[in-house]
C-alpha cells in the first residue's frame, strides 16, 4: 500500500493544480482556490485516520482540532452565541478532537476498515458542507469537491499499490479493501451508514438547502436534468431505429431517374419530387395515378398539345418570320421542323 509521504505528495499536487485551474480558468477568488487546494491535501490523508498511533493520526487530529472551531464561528454567531460562549465552545471542541477523538480512533478502529470506503468519503464531504456555514452554495460545493477529490486519490493509490509486478501482475491481499461500499463485519457497516444517514438529514435540513428548495431552484435543476437525460435517450434510440413512413412501412432509397419520366440529370425522384436518393416509402407505388401520366423524358415530343397562346397561325404575317430558336409544326403532318427561318 502507498505510504503517508506518497499520499500527501499526490493530494498536494492535485490540490495545487485544482486551485490554479479554479482561479485562472473559472475566476474563483484566490483565497477560495487556496483553501480548496489545502482541503484537497488534507482529504488525501483522511482515510488513514484509522491507522492507529503514528504520524497520520497525530497530524489529522491536530489539524481538525485547530480548524474546526474556527470554521464553526459563523454558525455559532448565527445561533446568537455571545463572544464568551464562542470561545468556550471552541476550546471544548479542540479538547474533544485533540484528545477524545484521537483516543477513540487509536483504540477502536481497524486500518483499511470502513474509513477506507466510499460511504466515509461521503461522510467527510457532508461534514465539510456543514462546517462551511454562511458561504454561498458554490463555495460549499467547491470545498466538498476538494475534500472528496483528495479522499478519492488516497483510495485509488491504495488500490494501485495493491498490485505487484513480478514479470506479471500479482494482487496482494489488500487489493479491494480501499475502494469499497461494504466492509467486513456487520457492526462497522451499520455504524458507518448510520452516520451517513444522520449527516444527510442535517444537510437536507440546512437553511441554505431549504432556501434553495423553497425558491424552486432545486425543482428547476431536477427538471432540466431530467429533460436533458430524456432527450439524450430519445436521440440515442432514434439512431438505432429504421426510418419508417407514416403507416409504419420502412423507407427505401429510390435511385436517381428510376421509374420516372425525369431524366437522370433532373436530380429528382419519381415518387416525391425530392432530390435523388431521398427516402420514400418502400411500399409506395411508382406507377402514376390513372388520371395522370408521367412527364415525357427530355427530348421526346410531348403528346399534350401546347397552349392556344403558343399555337402558330397557318402562316406568319407578310414580311415577318418566327424566331429561329422556336420549334413550330410544319405544314406536313407528322413532320417537326426546328429552328426554321421562314414558314414553309
Task: Tell me briefly what this model is.
The chain has 10 helices and 6 strands. By secondary structure, the protein is mainly alpha-helical.
Record the SSE blueprint.
Blueprint: H1 4-26, H2 30-43, H3 55-71, H4 73-78, H5 83-108, H6 118-131, H7 137-160, E1 163-165, E2 169-171, H8 186-204, H9 207-214, H10 217-240, E3 251-253, E4 279-281, E5 328-329, E6 336-337
Antiparallel strand pairs: 1-2, 3-4, 5-6
Provide structural commentary.
With 344 residues, this protein is mainly α. The chain has a domain at 4-184. The chain is 51% helix and 5% strand. The strands form 3 sheets. A two-stranded antiparallel sheet has the order 1-2. It has a two-stranded antiparallel ribbon with strand order 3-4. Helix 6 (118-131) packs antiparallel against helix 7. It is extended. The N and C termini lie far apart (108 Å).
Amino acid at each position: 500500500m502507498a505510504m503517508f509521504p506518497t499520499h500527501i505528495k499526490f493530494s498536494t499536487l492535485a490540490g495545487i493544480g485544482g486551485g490554479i485551474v479554479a482561479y485562472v480558468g473559472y475566476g474563483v477568488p484566490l483565497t477560495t482556490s487556496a483553501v480548496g487546494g489545502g482541503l484537497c491535501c488534507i482529504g488525501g490523508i483522511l482515510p488513514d485516520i484509522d491507522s492507529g498511533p503514528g504520524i497520520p493520526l497525530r497530524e489529522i487530529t491536530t489539524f481538525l482540532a485547530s480548524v474546526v472551531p474556527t470554521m464553526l464561528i459563523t454558525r455559532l454567531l448565527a445561533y446568537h452565541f455571545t463572544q464568551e460562549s464562542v470561545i468556550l465552545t471552541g476550546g471544548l471542541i479542540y479538547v474533544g478532537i485533540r484528545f477524545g477523538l484521537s483516543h477513540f480512533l487509536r483504540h477502536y478502529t481497524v486500518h483499511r476498515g470502513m474509513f477506507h470506503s466510499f460511504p466515509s468519503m461521503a461522510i467527510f464531504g457532508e461534514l465539510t458542507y456543514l462546517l462551511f456555514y454562511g458561504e454561498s452554495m458554490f463555495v460549499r460545493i467547491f470545498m466538498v469537491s476538494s475534500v472528496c477529490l483528495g479522499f478519492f486519490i488516497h483510495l485509488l493509490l491504495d488500490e494501485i499499490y495493491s498490485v505487484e509486478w513480478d514479470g506479471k501482475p500479482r494482487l496482494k491481499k489488500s487489493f479491494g479493501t480501499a475502494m469499497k461500499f461494504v466492509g467486513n463485519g456487520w457492526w462497522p457497516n451499520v455504524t458507518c451508514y448510520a452516520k451517513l444517514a444522520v449527516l444527510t438529514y442535517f444537510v437536507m435540513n440546512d437553511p441554505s438547502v431549504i432556501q434553495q428548495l423553497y425558491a424552486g431552484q432545486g425543482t428547476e435543476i431536477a427538471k432540466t436534468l431530467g429533460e436533458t437525460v430524456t432527450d439524450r435517450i430519445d436521440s440515442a434510440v432514434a439512431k438505432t431505429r429504421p426510418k419508417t413512413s407514416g403507416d409504419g412501412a420502412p423507407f427505401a432509397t429510390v435511385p436517381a431517374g428510376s421509374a420516372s419520366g425525369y431524366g437522370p440529370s433532373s436530380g429528382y425522384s419519381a415518387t416525391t419530387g425530392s432530390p435523388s436518393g431521398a427516402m420514400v416509402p418502400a411500399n409506395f407505388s411508382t406507377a402514376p395515378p390513372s388520371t395522370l401520366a408521367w412527364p415525357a423524358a427530355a427530348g421526346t415530343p410531348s403528346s399534350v398539345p401546347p397552349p392556344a397562346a403558343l399555337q402558330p397561325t397557318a402562316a406568319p404575317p407578310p414580311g415577318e418570320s418566327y424566331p429561329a430558336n422556336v420549334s413550330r409544326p410544319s405544314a406536313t403532318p407528322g413532320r417537326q421542323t426546328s429552328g426554321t427561318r421562314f414558314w414553309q
